[in-house]
Amino acid sequence: MRLEPKPAPSITVLLLYPVAAILVTLVIVSLLVLAAGASPLSVFGLVAKGAAGSQFALLETLTRATPLIFTGLAVAVAFRAKLWNIGAEAQLYIGAVVTVVLGTGALPLPAGLLIPIIAIAAMAGGALLLLGPALLKTRFGVDEVVTTLLLNFIVLLFVSLLLEGPLKDPMGLGWPQSPKVIAEAQLLRIIQGRRLHFGFIIAIVSAIVVWIIMKRTALGYEMRAVGHNPEASRFAGIPVNKVLMKTALMSGGLAALAGFSEVSGLKGNLTLDLSPGFGYSGIVVAMLAMLNPLGVVVTAIFVAGVFVGADAMSRSAGVPSYIADVMVATALLTMVTAMMFTRYRVRWR
Amino acid sequence: MEQAIEILFTASFWVAAIRIASPLIFATMGELICERAGVLNLGIEGIMTVGAFAGWFTVYSGGDLWTGVIVAALAGAAFGLLHGFLTVPLGLSQHVVGIGITLLATSLTYFVYRLVLPEVTSPPKIDPFQPWPIPGLSKIPVIGEALFAQTPLTYLAFLTVAVVAWALYRTPAGLALRAAGENPSAVEAQGISVTGVRMAAVMVGSALMAVGGAFLTMSAFNSFFFEMINGRGWICIALVVFGSWRPGKALIGAILFAAFDAYQIRLQQISGGIVPYQVFLMMPYILSILALVLVARRATYPKALMIPYQKGER
């Protein structure tokens, strides 16, 4: 078999491909549900109900989507320039560490001043963390996939060290957790008494800003050019390494905002289970959105819905909630395959 | 200080080093085969997880140990088939597919684990491989114990290196595989299918990765638990680069790395808690990054690594 480029299909046909990918994913997941001895239709119903069946469920999904929007944007920005940042998890934790360091009373400032300072400092922390692998890539030719992946493990151990040492909560009964951030460092809840917080609004605004940068600025153009063909970009006079640095700073900063928003808006303190793999799920979110920053918001909510819904379903239907991770990973693979078929057709001969 | 040096002369240290090296050797050889054929396999971490579970579960359900190893290898090959199909004939991004395979393989393993063992709090144990001391040789002080009193899977790991080295450099199949990673059109010109060679390489490589994972549950430990691969797959990718894509050098890299890992564990014990234990645990990952930086300048990647091949295209 061989692949043959084909003309771009019309918009309506183009939309059929992701739909087909989702259908294939649902079929595969159905088989697993059947293997677990449950009925796929009722399980999907329970997942949908758990994700969006009530105001409470919907708000829970949006809350879960918030960090995924940030990590999804981080990955979308980086992958667009073919900077393979698989380290959003580590950058998220650095953002959370900075938030706790500055937000537990070190800076006695009013909320209007303190929160922006913390957010910017957190972004700087995440940005610097990704700058390391980016420099190793441009200066020494070290593959950033491996370095960013390994940094995830290093940073998590570093966080563990902090939580058992300098950042340990003296009132934490020996648990490895940090003290809570002060009231001035907390993001407000959007609806009183619900968990959804202003981090979600920041995430949406970030998505719009990133979209403008990618589509409407010279930097965005250069990033896309570098991702498309670094050799040609260099030939055209684009400072490829500089663009990669800027991409790294942006990507790392966005991922760190996830950590900031989780601590400041939701959890209040830092623990070792702050992120159940938001950094890795961010890759799926970005790929499902075809690296479009606005699309990231939609896919993040979708992925969050799958996780939140599966948690609820698993409690009542007895199918392990890992089915959500399987579904999300399957969706990633079917979606990239479907996207390929929008550009190529298979010739058998 | 004296204690820190004495460690290096104890047999138990070298026994541990070789034991720690064994899963890395399998998985590094697996990754090396894939990359020499031109395919970066980032599915390694997930495939090792699948192997660890498949091998252990086979034995737990009443199979014997070698059946477990074979089941693990087959499970790895199955994920290799998927990885290969998506990246070779379909030519999808090896980065994205690899990460996708890792996510899929890991979550599928956890799903199945929870499905078959819903209620367990502590993971059930199996009777793992026991050491097979080789008569005579195992009596040599220090070295004998380290090299010749290990479990059969460790011997298999070393045998794998020899077989991979021989196959890569001394057989027509190995030549085709290396050429597929350097100059695929030359392979096609010989009437050999690049797609076929690369698919086979990814499947065999993935099978080896899975056996590396199975080593952990069937030889190093005796049960399966979550997150037990713990970045070993990523370290193996670094080891392949460190070993310049050569089986012998990669073997030395794996043993050096494992020796360092075994050393830091012992250093941790004698340091008496002055240095936080996390610093020691970070060492292997930091070391991997340093090793990459060290060799990066003179690394000679297989020329067609990560470049999809389309027949008739230039």
Query: How many DSSP H or I helices of chain B?
Result: 13
Rg of chain B (C-alpha, Å): 20 Å
Q: Overall pLDDT of chain A, averaged?
A: 94
What percent of residues of chain B are in strands?
under 5%
**Biggest sheet of chain A, in brief?**
2 strands, antiparallel
Compute the separation of the termini of chain A in Å.
Answer: 6 Å
Identify the CATH architecture of chain B.
Orthogonal Bundle
Strand content of chain A: under 5%
- The percentage helix of chain B is 55-70%
Task: Quickly give the structural class of chain B.
Answer: mainly alpha
Radius of gyration computed on alpha carbons of chain A: 21 Å
Distance between the termini of chain B: 60 Å
Question: Could you explain how this protein is built, in words?
Answer:
The complex is a heterodimer of chains A (349) and B (314). Chain A has a domain of 222 residues. With 349 residues, chain A is mainly alpha-helical. Chain A has a two-stranded antiparallel sheet. The longest helix of chain A has 30 residues. Chain B has 314 residues and is an all-alpha fold. Chain B has 13 helices and no strands. The termini of chain B are far apart. The mean pLDDT of chain B is 92. Classes of the chains: A mainly alpha (349), B mainly alpha (314).
Quick overview of this protein structure:
The complex is a heterodimer of chains A (349) and B (314). Chain A has 349 residues and is mostly helical. Helix content of chain A is 72%, strand content 2%.
